[in-house]
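Record type: monomer structure entry
Structure origin: computed from sequence
Chain ID: A
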Amino acid sequence: DPEFRLKYGSVLALKSPSDGVRELEEAARLAPQRADILTALGAALRRAGNQERAAEVFRQSREVSAAMAQRSEAMLETNKAIDSLKKGQVAPAIESLRAALALDPAFADANHYMGIAQSAQQNWPEANRALNAALQESPSNPEIHFNFAVSLQKQGDWDGAAREFQSVVDLRPGQVPVMCQLADALSRAGQIERAQAELQRAKELGSCDAVQGKAH
């Protein structure tokens, strides 16, 4: 629990700086992006007489604070983009998302919605680039995999769509509509045996009539 270690280490450092440093170093290991933990660790190191290490940790704390401030601004821009997309305003959404990514290029949410926005404009290279970037940062997010699959469907990339639908099924088992879409994509990609097997699994849980004919 980094929060407990932060509080305990800060109190401990007042009486025994070296013991406080050990506790706070563990807190920083558990939560390396917590600027408050790094600041407390820097103060404990300074009390313990390790001025050089304290200066380094304080520098890290400032960098983390700056990065978090940029992430917060990027989140605001991304939320503006989401509101624009809900209103069908794709161009303003892309503008907001570009601002978000200028602040934080690796921000998964901004790349995710950029992929959705570019897909809406059928700008497939940019859509694919953005969605791939989102997955690099957040590979276990089923929503990104799903929206990537839908985008690849629209492009006629059935192997790619099947791959992404499979990721959704692996991450969230038992979702019959996605299993049906996976069966459809597999069938269109020419993977008939896998399509039939997936269709059968889907039918055991619910109805998959929409793709039944395509997966035979």
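Annotation 1: Residues 108 and 134 are 4 Å apart (CA to CA).
Annotation 2: The longest helix spans residues 51-86.
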